[in-house]
Amino acid sequence: MRTKKSSDLISASGLIKLMTHAMMGAALGLTFSLTLVLSNPAVANLLNNGGSQAILVFTLTLVTTFAIGATLTGVVFIIEEDKQT
After folding, report:
1. Fewer CB within 10 A of the terminal residue: the chain, N end or C end?
2. What is the pLDDT of residues 45-79, one digit of tens each?
């Protein structure tokens, strides 16, 4: 019978991998929000009329959404990588 190997997700290297995925998602969210504002004048107009709070909420919503999505994808990748080894 094979011995049970601990998951790579619950280690220092796994945590670093997850943080890397979260940072990539945050960078992608920032890039997407900038692209959306520059390419869509209606979004830029809404943010211009909404004030600084609207800009902050818009950016943080996109950054958080992309970071959470990339982190969850990273969890799936790490677990699948563990199954293959």
Report:
1. N
2. 999 998 889 989 999 999 999 999 999 999 999 88
Identify the CA nearest to 5 among candidates 76, 85, 78. Answer: 85
**CB neighbour list of residue 20: distance below 8 Å, 6 or more residues apart:** 74
**Is 5 among the domain residues?**
no
Q: Give CA separation, 15 vs 43, 45, 58, 66, 79, in Å.
A: 36, 40, 28, 18, 13
Range of the structural domain that residue 74 is part of = 14-84
66, HSE (Cβ side, Cα atoms, 13 Å): 18
Q: Is residue 4 part of a domain?
A: no
Q: Total domain count for the chain?
A: 1
